Amino acid sequence: MTPGITLKSARRVSVFDLSQPGMGGSGITDPDFDGETLPTELAPVATRAKTGLPELSEIDVVRHFTRLSQDTFGVDLGPYPLGSCTMKYNPKRNDTLAELPGFAHVHPAQPADSMPGLWTLFHQLQNHLAAITGMDAFTLQPAAGAHGELTGLLIIRRHFESLKQNRSVILIPDSAHGTNPASAAMSGYICKIIPTTTEGTLDVGAMREMLNDDVAGLMMTNPSTLGLFDPNIAEIAAALHENGSLLYYDGANLNALMGLVRPGDMGFDVIHINTHKTLSTPHGGGGPGAGPCGVKAFLEPYLPIPVITQDDDGEIKAQFDRPLSVGRMKSYFGHVTILIKAYCYILSNGAEGLRTVSENAVLSANYIQSSLADLLPPVFQQRCMHECLLSGGDLDVDPFDFVKRLIDFGVHPPTLVGAGCVHFSDDYDAAMLIEPTETESLAVLDDMIAQFRKVAREVELARYMIETAPHTTDVAKIITDEPAFLSMLEADKPSSAKTS
Amino acid sequence: MSPLPGYNVLREQDRSHMLDKIGVDSIDHLLDFIPTDLRLQNPLDLPDPMSEWQLTRHLKELAAQNENTDSHVCFLGGSVYDHHVPEVVNYIASRGEFLTAYTPYQPEISQGLLRVLSDFQLVVGRLFDIPVVNCSVYDGATALAESAWMAISASSIHRLIVSDNIWPEHLAVLQVYMANRKVEIELIGHDAHSGKIDQADLDIALQQPAAAVIAQSPNCFGIVEDLKEVIHNAHQHEALAVIGCYPTSLGIIEAPGTHGADIVYAEGQSLGLSLAAGGPTMGMIGTRESLTDYLPGRLVGETKDIKGESALALIKQEREQHVRRDKATSHICSNQALMALRSLVYLSLMGENGLRRVATLSAQKAHHLCAELERIPGISRSYQGPFFNEFCLDLTVNTATLLDKLRQQGFHAGINCSANNKDAQQRILIAVTETQSLATLDHFATAFAQTIDQIS
Ligand SMILES: Cc1ncc(COP(=O)(O)O)c(C=O)c1O
């Protein structure tokens, strides 16, 4: 099947459809080896006759994937105010610097003293993260936010093991991101859920009632996934610590806080940072990110191995001999290229730049909230942090339909219940979480606001346009409760499902 | 006018206008809901900001301090290999549309990305010969841990039988992931002659119920296992077979799925990903259809739009943390989608013949080098089982000294496996990919022989 000339049709074509026998593998040759004869000893076990991989020419690969890219919306194409995901512009220079051969071509099993540049970078980055967050020590190993959570929770476990205390419960606010309870379960904890007050803050009274000597800790993000700063945080921390429990900080919302407030100063004992959100890494269609985990000094012995530290004579080393460590969280050192980007971002901004980042992130979210208040009132009647939770309850149209119409006007929909990464309780089922980020100029923010208003006007004038949106995309609206089938090759489908 | 700090885009007049609209007179006032005693009083303790050229110079200086595959010939493996990365892979993966998108929660504007992820599932399914593949997890080690948990959830048996010749780092991560989930991990040994799983040990272990038998082929000595036998044995005792593989080797070696593996996992770095000091790489997991609901992470499938036209979307999200929270199959949210894109482009470029050639060339060169090295007095193959592109040698000299001397001559000659090794005192693990020329291999063999001569 030929793909046709319009790029829109590329999505209908799989690489198998583009396959032409005999294509592919260009340039995989060597004058001294035929690339065909199997070594005698291997031949009896290397019996695979066919892989069934598709066979494409290089130009077909380039065209096909270029076309697919053009059928994909990213921050490079327009505003992406997906709440909780911090879809900001990530400086291109950092992507290039992270790929310098002196980083990209390093094998992780090289002798430790063959990569001093990397050790220096890791060590400096750990120090900078400590400065930004008010924590004492960091591991850069976790692969993403959720992986940082798991690391932090295992550290908490080790702490109580060493105290010979058996605590089995982790408290989690009902507004927490799904990764929090999932990570808690993976580290063997039972989750107990703390309700949110009508003001949008953690219900401190309810929390106090749940505190007992079975509680290992509380996982919290501040600002919360409702976009609000919890002013009771000091009281919460004190109550937890009095109970002998620890406080975990989900750093997914750190973009609101840099240079303004530090998790360490709020009383958090263990944290992770989603560097791909706050400290710049393009999200790559879903990842990779990085989730460095930071701790207060008393938890430092439990950090996963290897730990990068500087010894007394100034040499930076990867330490493996750490008897109290939780162990290893992943292969090697972490997502090195992502960490390099975070380092570059911090160095380009400096202290003032980072504070301005957070100030502007908060300013922009409040500006959106104020500008849309008549149309989409804030769910909680108060100022927000770097994202605003607005109610679509007065819209007279399903908010799910409403935000799909934004697509036609060049704006990525904000986070909704069931359409984004955040979990909301049913009370907010008409709510939208909008995170404009600090990298959109005022002109873009005003344009975004105008697009929301344009859609709102259509509720009366052209309701149909909203209900059937988007109209500018090659596919029409996709409703999640349509039956869906796993992508599978015809040959692999169970015989009942085969079309032929 | 001085430039805005860092990457900020709001000018002073913009900020004033916005504050006005909000109805506050300053940023401090805007943030007055934060208790003052929590507000940071001093600037963050960070270096002065750098210009783009200063930053570039600084990063180049740091990068220049690291030995790498341009400065040293690399014979290091251990799950991460110096295979060739075609430039088209870098080119496509740097397209801003792919690079700056996130998880395709909005399928209408993500059909291109969804097609990539869907094709990744299909192509990897072919390679593993298994019908269902997810959109990636963090790395090979966490792929193993997640696969093991799938088997435990599916069987409700909290016991794993694990071959002791899987990558040590993978085993270490598995132990951490299972530590607090009441899982017993029973290690079984390997045959000291062949390097393969000790089938007698496996038989004994299988006398008690187990969720899964976990094996890896090629194993951590580079030896190709008799997977058919291992899997058959597991199934005889109603344990699932969870098999780790090296994707490149599947160009010539029978896929685990073909032998009946229930779950196949892999470190995907060899498929068009740079070494990057070990990360980000990519974990891959494939399985039989009946185990789909236990899979971690994203899955893409076909659905219909409201006009009845076929379209792609994320499916089976009820497994995932944002829906199921503490009952989810895994906590994974951000994954390795960009690496999945890279490997799909890589496999599309290679195709049937290309992957076969990469695998064959790697094996040919490794076997050539091994034969050359085996001729050196005092050197012997550690195991007699057939290897793919990576092999262990036992030495009569100190491995660390040898590696050090060879490094001075421009070689990262191999991984020192002498520590914690029951089978031999001095041992080196050497990996060869298609990228080394005959001249380099022979030059290396000569240097190896001379160095051994010097230090023995
Ligand atoms: C509040 C919150 N916590 C945790 C996470 C998980 O982070 P990651 O996707 O990096 O694993 C996210 C990501 O979406 C988040 O928004």
Whole-number average pLDDT of chain A?
Answer: 93
Task: Quickly give the CATH architecture of the domain at 93-346 in chain A.
Answer: 3-Layer(aba) Sandwich
Alpha carbon gyration radius of chain A: 25 Å
CATH level-two architecture of the largest domain in chain B: 3-Layer(aba) Sandwich
Descriptive account of the structure:
The complex is a heterodimer of chains A (500) and B (456). With 500 residues, chain A is an alpha/beta fold. Among the domains of chain A are: 7-27 and 53-72, no CATH class; 93-346, Type I PLP-dependent aspartate aminotransferase-like (Major domain) (Aspartate Aminotransferase, domain 2, 3-Layer(aba) Sandwich). Chain A contains 14 helices and 13 strands. In chain A, the strands form three sheets. In chain A, strands 1-7-6-5-4-2-3 form a seven-stranded mixed beta sheet, with helices on both faces. In chain A, strands 10-12-11 form a three-stranded antiparallel beta sheet, with helices on one face. A two-stranded antiparallel ribbon of chain A has the order 8-9. In chain A, strand 8 and strand 9 (316-319) form a beta hairpin. In chain A, helix 11 packs across helix 13. The longest helix of chain A has 37 residues, at 336-372. The radius of gyration of chain A is 25 Å and the shape is globular. Chain A starts with 57 loop residues before the first helix and ends in a 14-residue tail after the last strand. The relative contact order of chain A is 0.13. By secondary structure, chain B is α/β, with parallel strands linked by helices. Chain B has two domains: 73-83 and 352-455, Aspartate Aminotransferase, domain 1 (Alpha-Beta Complex); 87-346, Type I PLP-dependent aspartate aminotransferase-like (Major domain) (Aspartate Aminotransferase, domain 2, 3-Layer(aba) Sandwich). In chain B, strands 2-8-7-6-5-3-4 form a seven-stranded mixed beta sheet, sandwiched between helices. The longest helix of chain B is centred in the last third of the chain and has 38 residues, at 337-374. The radius of gyration of chain B is 26 Å and the shape is globular. Chain B starts with 11 loop residues before the first helix and ends with a helix. In chain B, 60% of the residues are buried. The chains are: A alpha/beta (500), B alpha/beta (456). The interface between A and B is large, with 208 and 207 residues. Bound molecules: pyridoxal-5'-phosphate. Pyridoxal-5'-phosphate binds next to helix 5 of chain A.
